[in-house]
């Protein structure tokens, strides 16, 4: 707290204003009471809120406010004991600021990329990630930042991909199993199991919720071709927005449809936009997959031609070599992609030699939680 | 096809119009070419699209169109062979219609409910669900319709809940394990593991993607109290919208925040709205949990008072007994909720006697796919 910090009650106690180094920040009484951190409001052990909003009067009023050390002491009209608020916490959680994000903004911890990332592919050493928390934290940080990471020097062993998942989270089992084999099949139920090249895509857009992480682990790789490639879907969408804001808006505003019914007993369908925005415009997801795109029927006739033009252009931007990071995986190497953002592709490969990958899905909640907990521990230790 | 069916080429071949019993429906040439079902466009076995949009010219034009039996034969300028389209498929997938959904619309297979559902709780018999496809289909249909279903006469056996998940899909493993035990603990990491009553809530809103199904399975139930209750969050949101459209809009337009950091190494956070709408206004999710709601910081000061009033009112509607379906589970009984829609609550229970539930998460993709595949088989058999 600076000496200049001041507090002022507003609107008869329905709000207050704090004035300090960060400027003048207003807070509503009901928000303050709901966000108190005293032991009667939040369980001391696990931080869960013990009260419901219904226990706070609708006409919640502050009758007295005072600054004391790093704390703001508040007396509410409906209670006898004052509650202390940490000023630093209030500054961090202040909401009295101009809005003003433009559609397609991304979170501050995200950095979009192009082929230039080839020179600095985020890579972790399998054993270091297992044994060295600093190495794991750095790799997870890169995963959150770039939506993609490679892991080298892992074991060449059936199921080793589960050890990758265990570094940060949990496998998402699906109708494809806890994991799936990616090698040429004679009667494939999915084109992924052929030697065909696959255009860059996100996996399983027909699934809702979509698997938010994918792990692909190389066990054999002697066939010619079959290189892997990744491309940042957020960057492609940003490029689309820069050259054609209306096209970006169309792909975000209307739902596409996806479907997969390639196996008996399976009929997966989703209705979600190719570019998913949070209600305030944050870009939070890309769905792009020519193989499983179903007929788009939620775009009105008047917008369909422009929608298709934008869809085409997004595909061109995704296919643009200027955005591609490509690599060949050797046995024991793997890569992880944020399947809500980074598209992956495979070049065609020949039938001579072998190519055997194992893949599985996992989710970002575990990865981001593991990273956030490590960052908090690091912060506490410093 | 009726005798009156006609086809007309529009805009120099960039579109066509079909006129028949369904009225006049226009389709763009590029949409038609992209959605062809010939064997060169879609893999005959699994239905996956074999071409990318880039392989269709941007100026895709129809040069000749003719009706023949139930088919529309189209010749595209850039190709030599004509392609046949099924007229029934075109009618089903037509997009030339007025938009006009209002915000908060729900899918046609969803029916919102209130306490009146007490008289007809969707219930399946465990053994029948395992052995009789018609019984399973009926129960899954009710799950999709009401977002909630009960199962009776299951085994009283540790892990029996996995047999419930296997009826339709796959367990979503999380930091709580493949399943979690719900009984009173001495030093609980989560208030769910105490005897406290819990306000109706959706589970794990701090997780993204949220688990879309929850299974709760009763193994012991001799403690006084502890009744379970469910309430339709979509109905509560519909009521809010009817009495306060601006409040509904605020809860849909701004993101709330949720957090759980009750265990070592765990720090789960999300930023999602309490009422989630698809870009075209379809209601697709409710997140409501007083215990894990973090400070709401994405609502500007000018809207925060009204936002909080709407949040309060939504909670009152959720707590309204007029919307509650409550029941007591006996050992071997379980219930499943669509965790994106239906909130569940627990009344407080005493420390005497025992109450032991096992819970796990799963996802709707598997459930909806299992149902859709059964419906298609039924349709094909009829």
UniProtKB/TrEMBL annotation, chains A, B:
Gene Ontology molecular functions: dioxygenase activity
Keyword ATP-binding assigned: no
UniProt keyword Oxidoreductase present: yes
InterPro entries linked: AlphaKG_dependent_hydroxylases (IPR050411), GBBH-like_N_sf (IPR038492), TauD-like_sf (IPR042098), TauD/TfdA-like (IPR003819)
Protein name: TauD/TfdA family dioxygenase
Superkingdom, natural source: Bacteria
Domain TauD/TfdA-like intervals: 121-361
A Pfam family that the UniProt record links to this protein: TauD
PANTHER family, A to Z: GAMMA-BUTYROBETAINE HYDROXYLASE-RELATED, OXIDOREDUCTASE AIM17-RELATED
Cofactor: Fe(2+)
Family the entry assigns: Belongs to the gamma-BBH/TMLD family.
UniProtKB keywords: Dioxygenase, Iron, Metal-binding, Oxidoreductase
């Amino acid at each position: 707290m600076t000496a200049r910090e001041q507090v002022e009650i507003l609107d008869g106690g329905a709000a207050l204003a704090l004035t300090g180094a960060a400027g003048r920040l207003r807070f509503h009484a009901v928000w303050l009471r709901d966000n108190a951190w005293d032991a009667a409001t939040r369980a001391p052990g696990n931080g869960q809120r013990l009260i419901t909003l219904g226990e706070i009067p609708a006409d919640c009023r502050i009758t007295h406010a005072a600054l004391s050390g790093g704390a703001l002491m508040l007396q509410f009209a409906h209670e006898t004991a004052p509650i202390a608020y940490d000023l630093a916490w209030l500054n961090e959680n202040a909401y009295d600021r101009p809005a003003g994000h433009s559609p397609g903004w991304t979170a501050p911890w995200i950095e979009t990329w192009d082929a230039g990332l080839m020179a600095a592919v985020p890579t972790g050493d399998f054993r270091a990630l297992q044994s060295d928390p600093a190495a794991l934290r750095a790799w997870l940080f890169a995963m959150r930042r770039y939506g993609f990471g490679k892991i080298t020097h892992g074991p060449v062993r059936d199921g080793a991909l589960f050890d990758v998942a265990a570094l940060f989270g949990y496998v998402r089992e699906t109708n494809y199993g806890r994991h799936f084999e990616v090698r040429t099949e004679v009667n494939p139920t999915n084109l992924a199991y052929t030697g065909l090249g696959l255009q860059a895509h996100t996996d399983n857009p027909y699934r809702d919720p979509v698997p938010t992480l994918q792990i692909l682990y190389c066990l054999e790789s002697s066939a010619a071709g079959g290189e892997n490639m990744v491309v940042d879907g957020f960057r492609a969408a940003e490029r689309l927005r820069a050259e054609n804001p209306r096209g970006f808006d169309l792909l975000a505003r209307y739902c596409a449809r996806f479907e997969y019914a390639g196996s008996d007993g399976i009929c997966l369908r989703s209705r979600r936009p190719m570019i998913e925005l949070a209600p305030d415009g944050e870009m939070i997801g890309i769905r792009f997959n020519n193989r499983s795109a179903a007929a788009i029927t939620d775009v009105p006739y008047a917008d369909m031609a422009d929608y298709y033009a934008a869809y085409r252009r997004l595909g061109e931007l995704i296919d643009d070599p200027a955005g591609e990071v490509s690599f060949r995986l050797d046995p024991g190497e793997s890569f992880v992609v944020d399947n809500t953002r980074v598209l992956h592709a495979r070049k065609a490969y020949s039938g001579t030699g072998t190519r055997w990958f194992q893949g599985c899905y996992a989710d970002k909640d575990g990865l981001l939680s593991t990273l956030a907990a490590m960052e908090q521990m690091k912060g506490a230790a410093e």
